[in-house]
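Office hours follow-up: a student asked to see two folded examples consecutively, so here they are.
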Amino acid sequence: MGRRTIAQITWGVVIAALLVAGQSAAANAAGVTEREGEPGLPDRAVCGTLTVSEGRSNPESRFLDLPYVVIPAETQPATGTPVVTLAGGPGETTTATAEALAADPRIGGSRDIVVLAQRGSSESSAPFACPGATSAYIDTFTTDDPPSTEMSEVGLAMQACLTAFAEAGGDTSAYTRADFSADLVDLRATLGYPTWTLYGDSWSTKIMQLTAQRDNAGVDAIVLDGFSPLDRDLKGDAYFALADTLNSISARSNGEYPDLNGDLAAAAELFSVDTAHVLRTKPVSGMPRYDSLSGSDVLTIVQQALYDPATASAVPYLLSRLADGEKDAINPFIPAALDQLTSGDLSLFWLNACRDEQPYWSADPTVAPEEGSDSTDPVPLPVLTYFTAADQLCGAMPPSSGELRAPTPVSQPTLIFRSDSDPLYAGPGAEAGRAVFANNQMVVVQANGRAGAASDACALDVLAGWLASPGSPVSTTTCADAAEAYPVLPADAVHPTSRFSSVVTAVDQRNWFELTIPLIFGAFAALWFVGWVIGVLVQAIRREPFGLMLASGIAPVTGLAFLGTLWLTVTAGQAAYPGFTLVGVPTITPWLGLALLGVGFFGLIPVWRLGGRGSAALAAGATLVWLAAIVWFVWVAVLPS
């Protein structure tokens, strides 16, 4: 099926070339070729490569190969307008949104779903990657210098990468929103789609808005998920969005966390006065390093933790502990936040931001000096450090045209999704920017973190209904009251022990060495249990007294019950509140676990009484194993940390 569909697309390219003969030479130069698909894509997916000029205004420019995926409609021939998506951040390579749309029969059943890789991403033929700059940025979490000072190494590494990229024939000026948009226009023309529906996610909503303005006749409808208008101040919006998200969570916490913004300010002040030192592993190189966290580092970590649905629900409890002076509580959040920061490509983000965003965004936040202070200079507040990095390294890059930031009226029906917990793109910004869409509806989605409409069941229902008839009225508030689906972690449900997160991480990463004690305990208890059951059955069959033998099974039975209880309580907590184990374990876990381990330890007494060398050896070995398990469990799950 894949080759037949590719053949159809190839014919479409020829026909499209004839139809768009009057268009620009750059569009005519674009073309598609077949390629092998990535593992894990739907069986019906068709993979190809779009070839475009890197610098469309430069006839000497090299060409770029950009992979794309078409997931044909489940029912052929397709009757719905195709939907095209672009990853939500510079350098991201995910097809998750396209796959989610294609998997929903209400959407992918009747329409093709298309996703295009971004120019400069690791999937393109000429990726712009600067691991040195990313590594240097991660290293800023190891020092407590002012953020502007910390970023000097980032700037040097980035400049070296820009120079190397240019020497290899690359055009660093060809990575603006206009270039990303032109790639989409070329893809539509070369695939032969007369029109399609644009689906923008987060950062790529800007690309889709610009595409709707520039390729108006080729756009049937628009979906903007996490909308950031073309003319918004990206940095200023991020600070506002972070504060707005914390206010929203405070409001739906039923008084549990009444002032999360105050807690964050107190936490940042705590780390600004006295930095914290933590031994960690670099996410880029894997080498060990000591983090030295400042107030700005804490602000950045908290924002990333709020953005990630896997950690967001635990952030309110984290902030309450930090505000109380418990600095170690942030330790488990650091790796997840840094992974979130580097999940895309920071260097490509900076390259794009230096042209499209940084020249137009606001200065870092400040407050007026205290009354009676000798200085009249504004007092700097903690900053989001990846913006500070851009401020330091963008100086030599000319800005893109201000015309690319000018919204113009768009007539196509538009559906806008806005999350009440998006700490990067501010809701008021989306409200202000929707006015240029003549026929728009905005759906507010309540959630923990920013997962996107394609990952939210309620939002997906709204989207499917709207795509069936773009512009038709939808309920804009039906997804705004989901407190039961996205609860805030209550403090009285947590036994605070940040050490337990290392156990969960070890399980996720299959790090068996760090799980040595529980693995030995589990294997010992399981083998003993099997042997004990066999022994009891044999004595019962022989009609021999087996009371003492029965009592000797207390230890293996309670040992297995301990492991099962630990798994069940922790799993239930994680299911209800993703990120639970970053701050602790359910309150019942430590005490029930200690009770079962204690009963099992005293249950070794009948084993000693069985007599014989074998029983004595078993009892001695079991004693050591149980003591090790008790010490391990007390350390990771009982002692507060």
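And the second, which I mentioned at the end of office hours:
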Amino acid sequence: MSKIEILAPVGSEEMLRAAVFSGADAVYLGFSGFNARTGAGNFDADSLKEAVRFCHARGVAVHVALNTTVYGGELNGLANAVRAVAASGADAVICQDLAVAKLIGDIAPQLPRHGSTQMSVHSLQGALELKELGFTRVVLARELSLPEVEHITKHCGIETECFVHGALCMCVSGQCYMSAFLGGRSGNRGSCAGPCRLPFEANALPEGKPGRLHHLSLKDNSVIDKLDQLQALGVASAKIEGRLRTPEYVAAAVSACLAGREGRAYDRDLLKNAFSRSGFTSGYLDGKIDGTMFGVRSEADAEQTKKTLPMLRELYRRERSRVPVKMKLEIEEGGEKLTVMDADGNKAFAYGDAEPQPARTDPTESLHRSLAKTGGTPFSAEKIDVEMDGGPWFVPGSAVNELRREALDALLKKRETLRPWPVNEVELPPLPLRTLPPHRTLRARFERWEQVPEQDLSGVEYLILPIGQADVFAVRTQLRMRVFTGHFRNIGRMHLCDDIPLLSVADAPTVEDHQQYFAITHPKHYFTCSTISSTALSIAAWMPSGFLPPAVARKGCPPPPPLMALAASRTTTPALTPCATISSPKATVSVGLPSLIDPITSTIFFERERTAKARSLMKSGRRSVCVAISRSEE
């Protein structure tokens, strides 16, 4: 069984040293301008190369985050960022926007891609979709339980990565728009202001009295004590959250993970003192979701952290000897030669000019001790051979030490050599120009269907209502669903329920040709889809031309304009998103529910109280495409 990787966050050069010196197997860091932590000390093309040299010389992998959604006007900058990452020889790229993933595949097809937790991959179907799209690893949603992690890991066919320590979002990862709505700082663009940490009270408050409780603030996740279980399940990487935190925090978390991986006890209080919000929670992985998961960072927490910092710095003060090497010392009458070689086949040599003297006793043991003193370097002597031609020979310890230092320095420089990924010349297509309609149209927004006027709707292009009002506009009939995908992959015939067939894309008409169709897309929208043929999904549901909302039907008025759902985010959604609700004798199916749609896969996202219905559908081998069962009518 291979060891689970300990993956540490890096938001500055000091954090990089802390992560590596404390024992992390890999680090992840952000490339400037295109990662989900714009407030961290991110890396440009030059500093990224230096970080990769430092890490690779010490046997540590580097994952680069390009995990924001990207606008069309940023594609040239993104392409340059991809080329810079490829030139650095970094080990992988973390991304969430499928258009970004495709551009990486076009420019540097051999550069491994990891699906970010911002993709909200929470199901086996989502992981399988990433595998088909060429991803080599999926960072699973933090909201999964241990059995769910096990099921995905054992059947998806690519590596899985799980968060084991650090902050939790109140919303499902990648689906939160709170910061964007309240302050124009989008979390999916790397600028989350963390408003969920402010006082928001669920209780009724007197008018004018501000809330004091923090009913949106979760404690930090910590499941380090279950690392050995995750390792046994085959999870490839244990990820620590926290690129905006301190080097001391990183060192404490890495040290605890090293112990947890081996099933050893670790100092939980020391970890808590490094950073916590009134303690930790493991509620999601344990499947125990309740009020104990909530917590805030108190003044006492901050004071304890301040007192603990000097102790935590000791965790990364020295270089960790972690790269095994083989040494061979050859001594003959004319001089000495030391050869050192690592597991990758890199070799370095050092030659001595001290003339050996005949020895009265065998010096082999003392030579071994001198060569094994690799402290202060990233190397450890795995095997030492000493060969003496015509000996035994005596060589002063100072001369042997100098040979060791010279050979290990030369090997370190060899290991620092960058190995860039090959790149292709890719010419980005011009951005499509938006054409204005010849006549301006009116779009009317209402809170309830009762507010919609029964007449004078002829000049209105769209009616805009909250998604909760979709039930009022439900189609009480058996409907045929038609599926569209950006890459037009034939998904074959599938069924959500026996009476709602989902047909292959080969049968699907275009929305432009059939005005009865209401197309929907995921609220993130992946802005560059149309530019570089991303695979964002859309779906259309045929509405009978004779169907009318109740109030309109009673008056014999003409059909109203299409119903639309409000866009999920003003900062990340370029247009309004149409939606509809479809009913059958067995279930009501709602399309366009942002909180229930898997952003990249043709699969259902069920709330936990709907898991029984989900399991029954999955056991029958049925899948859905961006839809969610909202109410049983059995």
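Two things to take away from it. The chain has 17 helices and 29 strands. The two ends are 48 Å apart (CA to CA).
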